[in-house]
Amino acid sequence: MEAASVETIPEGKEWQYEPKWDGFRCLAIRDGDAITLQSKSGKPLTRYFPELVDALSKLKAKTFVLDGEIAVPRGKLFSFDDLLQRIHPAQSRVQKLAAETPVILIVFDLLAHGGAMLATEPLDSRRAALEAFFRKYLRGHKSFRLSPATTRLADAKRWLRQVGATLDGIIAKRRDLPYQAGNRSGMVKIKNYRSADCVVGGFRYNEGRKVAGSLLLGLYNDEGLLDHVGFTSSFKEDEKPALTKKLEKLKGGEGFTGDKPGGPSRWSTKRSAEWVALKPKLVVEVCYDHFTGGRFRHGTQLLRWRPDKAPEQCTMDQVAQKRGDLMKLLK
Asked: What are the CA-CA distances from residue 26 to residues 67, 102, 191, 291 (Å)?
């Protein structure tokens, strides 16, 4: 179940409010001795978090499906950079980081338990079941936390005032609806900046140098074609050689299948047609100020790489629903 981006917190008795955590969304599934961690794009996460698998295997509950967020505590905050390091091909490295930067699972929904399928129940019922499950099986365990929830708008507004220091934003969920996988109609999010997850469809070399100077960003339109929507170049100089190698391994792809870089527009330059097409494998989250005419008006700020997101999830509806200045909500 995914969230649509909105400008303000919705009001009404039909809404439940929760903090929005900065981590990897995860379904934790246990069926007897079999334990699976799955990202919201359907990718397996199990091998990357052995300490969480071990914690789940020790629970007295033997069959369940939990929806939550994997995060790495760092003092009073969470470190997404430390979390990102865990997605590593070497199992020895994963084991080392599991000991050095252990994760927690912040749970906010219970979709199944024992022989009961709860996903078809309304959120109010699922939340009550989750709290009972947490009290019985998870309370006091260092690997698990229960995400707070409230029906009071004042609490949600207070949380949102704390976004800059501790939270990624606010989630609002319809209390009367069942769990709706792949549907954004029953859950919305309010963040402290406008951001979008984009596919890296190509890149440009630095002028006069054979190192990456900017990433070309794409979003899938309603026809399923990847449109070029802008660029980002906000990465450090010493990162460019390694980044260039990473990008060059994906050369030879079709790149943008919809609108392409270099077409006539108010943003065109003499270098617009000079770019390298890539296979659509990499996803980045960028921060932006305005999106008009099918483009980010200015260059964007690279926030982070998103190996947990599938390129197909990077659609135009992200920017279509993010109107207004979310930063003003925090003043």
From this structure: 6, 16, 20, 30
Model's pTM, two decimal places?
Answer: 0.72
Same domain, yes or no: 199 and 188 = no
Q: For the chain, what is the domain count?
A: 3
183 and 308 fall within a common domain: no
Active site (annotated) includes residue 260: no
Tokens representing residue 23 in the block: 């981590």
129 and 167 together in one domain: no
Do 203 and 92 fall within a single domain?
A: no
Q: 34 forms bridges with which residues in the sheet?
A: 31
The residue annotated as part of the active site, out of 13, 20, 96, 245, is 20
Q: Rounded CA gap, 262 and 274, in Å? A: 8
pLDDT mean across residues, the chain: 88
> Domain check: are 132 and 29 in the same one?
yes
Instruction: Write out pLDDT tens, residues 75-132.
Output: 877 888 899 999 988 999 999 999 999 999 999 999 999 989 999 999 999 999 999 9
Q: Which structural domain, as residue segments, surrounds residue 125?
A: 22-146
Q: What is the pLDDT of residue 266?
A: 41
Where a domain ends, among 160, 192, 224?
192
Question: What residues does 276 pair with on adjacent strands?
Answer: 203
- CATH number of the domain encompassing residue 183: 3.30.1490.70
**Mean pLDDT, rounded, for 154-168:** 73
